[in-house]
Amino acid sequence: MEIRETSCTSILTRASGYLRRVCSHSLNPYVGCGYGNSSCGEGCYVRFNQWLLRGRQWGSFVDVKVNADTVYYKTVQAERLWAARKGIPFSIFFSSSTDPWQPVERKFRVTHRVLNAMLEEVPDILILQTHSSMILEDMKCIVALDRLCDLRVHISIEGDQDSLPGLPPPPCSVDQRIKLVKEFASRGITVVVCMSPLYPLRDPDYFFTRLVESGASAVVIDHFIGGDGTQDGSRTQRTRLPLAMKSFDSQALELSYREKIATIARNYLPVGISAPGFAGVYSSKMVSITEKT
Description:
Elements: E1 2-6, E2 12-14, E3 25-27, E4 30-32, H1 39-42, H2 50-53, E5 61-65, H3 68-86, E6 91-94, H4 105-108, H5 110-120, E7 125-130, H6 139-146, E8 150-156, H7 174-185, E9 190-195, H8 204-214, E10 218-221, H9 224-227, H10 241-248, H11 255-265, E11 271-273, H12 274-278, E12 281-282, E13 287-288
């Protein structure tokens, strides 16, 4: 793993494409990801972003934006005004192309410093997404931010198995991530489980029962077809993920599988599909749970 310290000139990226329906801005404290060679890295759409890779192999590098918190302070007001001119909330997806709580975070603490900067320059909406139990190390700061803005913690749990045949294990087990849901929910924080990309499930009813019992507020379901930036999932078809999914349940390769699982999930939790789900719109009635009660 090549670790390189870099300085950035911007840290708040105006949303486009898929994210335009989710937030006004994304924020990525790192380029690349230390989890790139785990099971979540296999299905990660960022592995196909040649502008970010710049000829490097996904999972082989991490660029650390060591001045991210300073740049946030310098640019946040201009980006807040940009969102206001667009007539949209100043909403940040943290992060869209890396995991904010990956192994190098323990050394560099970029995510931690940016979260502390947000305590002074608070967004309207903040979405924190991770696969990692390391997020617990920032619990105090996240609880404080939850009192100041509309905050959601998104925990990625693609399915009910730790790994599929032929794929490496995930950064954290399913059990560990369900425990994360419980930890945040017990503090009154809105926690959404993100099944993205959706893996075949061994026992959907048992899985969603566990999510309910953990305190999850909703579940977002996104298939690699359409979810990897192509309509037919052709990018993901070049990885080992489809074969691993097929070896367990060939139906899971079809977009109809997403609808099948969503139908079951709605018996237990509000369900969001694809980008609207990430934006906080759930269930067939399009009910939003992003507003605190």
